[in-house]
Each structure stands twice: as C-alpha cells, then as structure tokens.
Write a structure and sequence with these properties.
Length: 64
C-alpha cells in the first residue's frame, strides 16, 4: 500500500474535525480550512490508488 493512502486518512480525519469545529463555532475560515484539508486527503488517496494500481501492473508484467 502506498504511503499516500495511509497519510490521507489522517488528513481527512483532521480536516473533518477542523471543519466540524468551524461549523460549531461559526468560524467560516476554520470550516473552510477543514474542508480543504479533507479534500486534500481525498486527492492524496486517489494518487495513492493510482500508484498502487501501477505498481500491481508492473509486478504482473515482471512475473511473466
């Protein structure tokens, strides 16, 4: 598993907490920062998925 996929989980969770805190406090800046961090984690997860898939394809090719 690509390290991006592990790191993204922490970013998504941290972003969700920050976004919820911003909503609870009525702080739009904090809420936006949390949403951005959550989105960053989702993108990082997608990148990690592509890397995993590419690695699997190379491994399958090398096994032949």
């Amino acid at each position: 598993m690509d390290k991006n996929r592990v790191e993204c989980t922490a970013k998504q969770a941290g972003g969700a907490v920050k976004e919820a805190a911003g909503k609870a406090l009525g702080d739009k800046k904090t809420e936006g920062e949390g949403a951005a961090k959550k989105a960053e984690g989702k993108v990082q997860n997608a990148v990690g998925g592509v890397k995993d898939k590419a690695r699997d394809m190379v491994d399958k090719h090398n096994d032949k």
